[in-house]
Design a protein that fits this description.
Blueprint (H helix, E strand, L loop, with lengths): L4 H11 L6 H9 L3 E3 L5 E3 L1 H11 L1
Antiparallel strand pairs: 1-2
Helix pairs in contact: 1-3
Length: about 55
């Protein structure tokens, strides 16, 4: 399933440490594209990095 432009924006924002909403955070984490640390930091998972790399091709 291809990601929407908005979903890709969320992943790019995470990659560039741009603040995102709680709803965006919830989507990325529950979809497996990001991981949320106890201190609130969010980072892309391997799946998230691969999704962005595939979009750049």
């Amino acid at each position: 399933m291809a990601l929407t432009d908005d979903q890709l924006r969320i992943l790019r924002d995470i990659e560039h440490t741009t603040p995102i909403s709680d709803g965006d955070t919830d989507w990325a984490v529950h979809a497996g594209y990001a991981a949320l640390a106890e201190d609130g930091d969010i980072d892309l998972t391997q799946t998230g990095r691969e999704a962005l790399a595939a979009d750049k091709r």
